[in-house]
Design brief:
Keywords: Aminotransferase, ATP-binding, Ligase, Metal-binding, Nucleotide-binding, Queuosine biosynthesis, Transferase, Zinc. This protein is α/β, with parallel strands linked by helices. The chain has one domain: 3-Layer(aba) Sandwich (Rossmann fold), CATH 3.40.50. 42% of the residues lie in helices and 13% in strands.
Length: 223
């Protein structure tokens, strides 16, 4: 089956958090048509999916949520299991217990299958090697490797974009500000591992990273 490639169409891996929301608006500036795809993988904070849905509805983005509950069965972690408390600090060795083995591999693979059916040439994800918290599937080498594999596996010319790959959280806040969506990202997104919108719980690694980045952003850019 021949599917025509649309180089003006993009699919964003969208969680409703700070990074993916910044990437969503980055994509809206860059491409004529943008579709957001979220995943239900049994995460404890279901509000994440509601945030994603609400943001897409409010800002006129086509949104799809795919069922990936199998991931919860395969990879026990603090984001999906109520009996595992989220690490407050990243361990010196190994990955934090919030790391979900294979998550970005599966997310990007499923998004690529979806994107091909839509004829979308571009895939956007908010991974960052600068702020990757020890997550191996946020590294540039992984993304480049997977991009080649996906193209070969489906005989389709995907281009995976990672706008945040080489910037830290302060620079991510700056990008949101430059895009004119700073207040949206600050108030309407959910980054917190404990499922609290906006500034979050302030205690989990995601909240600490977000807050420290925001303070550095305000200091560096004299807001």
């Amino acid at each position: 089956m021949n599917i025509e490639v649309n180089k003006d169409k993009a699919v964003v891996v969208f969680s409703g958090g700070q990074d993916s929301t910044t990437c969503l608006f980055w994509a809206k500036k860059k491409f004529k048509e943008v579709i957001a795809v979220s995943f239900d993988y049994g995460q404890k904070h279901k509000l994440e999916l509601e945030c994603a849905k609400d943001i897409c509805k409010k800002y006129n983005v086509e949104h799809h949520c795919l069922d990936l509950n199998l991931l919860n069965q395969l990879a026990p972690n603090s984001l999906t299991r109520t009996d595992i408390e989220v690490d407050k600090d990243s361990p010196e060795d190994g990955t934090p217990n919030s790391f979900v083995d294979g998550r970005n591999l599966l997310f990007l693979s499923f998004v690529a299958i979806f994107a091909k059916q839509k004829g979308a040439n571009h895939i956007i994800t908010g991974v960052s090697q600068s702020d990757f918290s020890g997550y191996p599937d946020c590294r540039d080498v992984f993304i480049k490797s997977l991009n080649v594999t996906l193209n070969l596996s489906m005989d389709f010319q995907f281009v995976i974009h990672t706008p945040l790959m080489w910037i830290d959280k302060a620079e991510t806040w700056k990008m949101a500000d430059d895009l004119g969506v700073l207040d949206i990202v600050k108030n309407e997104t959910l980054t917190c591992y404990n499922g609290i919108k906006g500034n979050g719980c302030g205690d989990c690694p995601a909240c600490k990273l977000r807050k420290n980045g925001y303070l550095e952003f305000k200091k560096s850019y004299k807001l």
